[in-house]
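lol forgot to send this yesterday, sorry. struct tokens for the thing we talked abt
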């Protein structure tokens, strides 16, 4: 469900306003109107509007690629990390809070895979030290 929601969020941005959403003007206007958690980051972003198209494109690519964790289990930790990063960025720049979504993203992880990968990294680190 989480991966599907991300996919359709990206598809909606492309279908409703079309590819005009990628010019960053809609995103810039939303950030300008809404308070965010980080005044410094918002001020920097608003002072440098050339970042808006890059952020808009990254948003659409990240959201539409959000379906990958559903089909490729090895991609899930990266997908969950990017979903969290995306929503933390939204929280810093604008007013929406996605705490519930961020918790549900943890449910798509294959915890057995995460545990074995962590153990593998831990053993390599111990051998290195």
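and heres what i got for the seq, position by position
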């Amino acid at each position: 469900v989480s991966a599907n929601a991300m996919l359709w969020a990206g598809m909606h941005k492309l279908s409703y306003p079309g590819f005009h959403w990628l010019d960053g003007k809609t995103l810039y206007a939303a950030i300008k109107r809404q308070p965010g958690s980080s005044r410094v980051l918002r001020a920097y972003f608003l002072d440098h509007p050339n970042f808006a198209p890059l952020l808009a494109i990254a948003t659409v690519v990240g959201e539409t690629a959000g379906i990958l964790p559903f089909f490729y289990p090895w991609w899930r930790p990266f997908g969950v990390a990017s979903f969290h990063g995306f929503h933390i960025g939204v929280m810093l720049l604008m007013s929406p809070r996605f705490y519930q979504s961020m918790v549900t993203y943890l449910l798509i992880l294959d915890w057995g895979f995460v545990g074995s990968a962590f153990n593998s990294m831990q053993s390599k680190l111990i051998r290195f030290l």
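The two ends are 41 Å apart (CA to CA). anyway ping me if u want another try
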